[in-house]
Amino acid sequence: MQKSIALLFFIIALLFLPTKSIAQKGFEIGPTAGGSYYMGDINMHKHFYSPHLNLGLFMKYHINPRIAVRLSGIATKLSAADIDFKNAFQQQRDHSFETNLVEIASMFEVTFLPYEIGDIKKKSFTPYIHTGLAVYLASSTQALNMAVPIGMGVKKNIRPRLVVGIEWTFRRTFSDGLDNLIGEDLKNYDSAYGININEANRHKQTGFLYTKDWYSFANLTVSYTFKLGGLGCPAYYE
Length: 238
Fold this sequence. Notes:
By secondary structure, the protein is mostly beta strands.
C-alpha cells in the first residue's frame, strides 16, 4: 500500500510539470478488451490466475500533450478456488467463489513522452501511467464498492485518427468480501488474549482481516480520435 501511495504522489507531482504546448486538446473513444483476474485471500501471489474475458468502453479527454482524463466502463467475471493451491490451510478450507463484476472508473493519465492526437511521426508513441477512483458492483457482495486503479500502458497512433494501446491496471478495493471470505484476527484465539487454540477453533479464521481484495485488467485498447480544431495539415501528420 505504501508503494501505491508513493506512486500516486509521483503522478500528482507530474501534473504540475510545465509543458510547452497547450493546444493539443481532443478526445479518444473506443472499446477495450482483455483478461481479468482476482487476488485476495484465495490467490495471494499468482498473477493471471484464473483469467476471464472483460469487455468495455472508454473515453479520454486530452488536456495537453502530457495529461488526459478518462472515463471507462468494464464488465467481467472473477473466480478462484482453494483446491488450485497446495497450501495445507487452503486445502482444509476448500473455499471457492465466482462473481460477475461491473465497474465504472474515472482516472487521469500522464504520458512519459509528449503525445499528440493525429501525429504519426514524432509524437505518436508514449508509455503512460494512470490512476483515479472506481466504483464496482459484484454479484458476490450485491453492493456498490470502491477501488483505486493504478496502472501503466503504451499507446501508438497507427493512423491520424486511430490509436491502439496495451495496458495493465490493478484495482485495490476497500472490501475484503469480493471472495466471500471475511477474515478474523488470530490474536482472538491466542492464549495470551484469553482463548486457547484447540481442535474446535483452530480453523476459525477463514480469511485475513487486515488485507483487502484486488482485481486486475490486462487489456488491448482501440480508439478513434477527435482533435478540437481539426487535425491540421495532412502533410504534417502523414
